[in-house]
Amino acid sequence: MNILRAGCRVSAGCAILALLGLSGMAPASAQNFPDRAIRLIVPFPAGGGTDLIARVLGQGLSSEIGQPIIIDNRPGAGTIIGTDAVAKALPDGYTLVVVTFANAANPGLKAKLPYDPEKAFAPVILLARSPNVLVVRRESPFRTVADLIAGAKAKPGTLNYASQGIGTSAHLAGELFESLAGADITHVPYRGASQALNDLISGQVDMMFATAAAVSSFLEAGNLRALGVTTAQRSPTHKDIPTIAEAGVPGYAAESWYGIYAPAGTPPAIIAQLNNVINKVLQSNDFRKRTEPEGLVIAGGAPEALDIYFKGEMIRWKKAIADAGIKPD
Q: What are the pLDDT digits (tens) for 152-174?
């Protein structure tokens, strides 16, 4: 409600408006937000799980706010290129980024980042969490996690696993698997999930700890076989797939997640507006129906929930990366 357009003709009216502003009314810069398209940067190529979720979210968000949501794929450097573009963008709410597991892992993998991961961004919302799924092609001789571990130990270094890039959940889920299972498996990074999955299906690589969002259609079509989910508990949408921990690697747990950040300095009123409308989209029947097959557990909530979760993930994976002997580059 644009209460300031009427102006202040008397001191009493101005005092009332001032009190309203102090009590949380949107500042002038936020009153007409949004009045044009919002750019949602996805730091991965088109076609992967993060891209899919961003596009479903963008369609719902566009319907709610009446403005276009432009999906801008900016892959490269383990999400750093796309993320840095948002760190340097104007803090006006019109440039957002989809953050993932990789954003929390990068501080442990990189000796220096072009932005401060704790100070360069304003949290908007934690969208959802989901398992990664350890998958092999349908012709693979490995039918269980125990089979795979036995094969890896029989011929150390000969098996390999694909990922959508260094520092992604698929990469570090594999590193954790190697460490806890005592298996020597070679990591093969790609520039995105689509290319990695194509090479997995064609037999160029042996396995992948892929996001549930990226592989659900391949599992349904029978092109891939799931051996285990990476989360501590079985996925509500993949109840027939055992956890990797129960399938032979005690203590194993990792998960993918998706959130939205804005540049630091974005007005709190705009953050609150974005948070409110995205929460509404997450709870819609359309969003849930379209993402349920991807194994997502919807999160939502206040911006602070993303901030707390992100910092916890950053600490946890810094330790896991150090324990795995991975040196920051």
A: 999 999 999 999 888 788 899 99
